[in-house]
Amino acid sequence: MPKRFMLMPVFATLFVTLVMAQSAQAPLTPTADWAAHALNQYLVIPNVTYLSASGHESKLDVYKRKDTTTPQKTLIFIHGGGWIRGTKEASVMSIIPWLEMGWNVVNVEYRMIQVAPAPAAVEDLQCALRHVAGNAKDYGVDTSKIVVSGESAGGHLALTTGMIPESAGFDRICAGGGFTASETALPKVAAIVNWYGITDVNDLLAGANAKSYAVQWLANLPNRDELARSVSPLTYVRSGLPPILSIQGDADPIVPYSQNVRLHKSLTEAGVQNELFTVPQGGHGNFSPDERTQIYSKIRQFLAKNGL
Length: 308
Description:
CATH superfamily: Alpha/Beta hydrolase fold, catalytic domain
Strand order of the largest sheet: 1-2-4-3-5-6-7-8
CATH topology: Rossmann fold
Strand content: 15-25%
CATH architecture: 3-Layer(aba) Sandwich
Distance between the termini: 29 Å
Number of strands: 8
Shape: globular
Structural class: alpha/beta
Helix content: 25-40%
Largest sheet: 8 strands, mixed
Radius of gyration: 19 Å
Number of domains: 1
């Protein structure tokens, strides 16, 4: 088991700053009061290697509640960046609302184009899910209540992680732990929260919606179109999927809003419980404080509706 730290520097600095901002004589605001408690509530296990591939170690951070010994609802969060940039450390602010709700959180990085092209990122998240399930006891995870979420490319990977069946074989790269295959099966996630994620990779490779980040991720692979279909969430729409909440601005210049409209329509036709929360005139994230308040209100309603 890796060495454990009470809080990573960025996490601790954020909370200490919030608390110190309050006057010594004045009562703490609810936010600062929660920050003070969080310093003692969470154990952080940073930079755990969950997969070694392509000469690279993919890592994750675990935020585990210390005030309970029972398995907990757990978020697996995935950063964005078009599969070509981004870090898990830069996503800490995105997981704080979940920590405030009392969830365990696993913050995941993955192989990007500088290390390996598609489908490496999809494979990594399958392996991260397998790793979390295999270490559920140590991490305090209730494997029946795992939610996957991410932003942009991370939203795409949240969808693929929750939608692609084990039979597709994207977890084969992490199936071994020596000379025998891992006995840990991929659990079915309880829900997916997709922040403006890509749902049709082929749509981004050419034509009006072509995006350089998608072209770069697929590189010059000889089976590019077939591979793009195999890593597109729309390919895997079927009955029996977990509930899915998609969030996107209808003026998003990076990921076409039409992609999540199509996903919502296809899921509904397949009988999958899902919602599309549209931010009017919203761009690619960078939502206003009022818009984020509305979004997290919707997320809480979505979680409650699905027993989470």
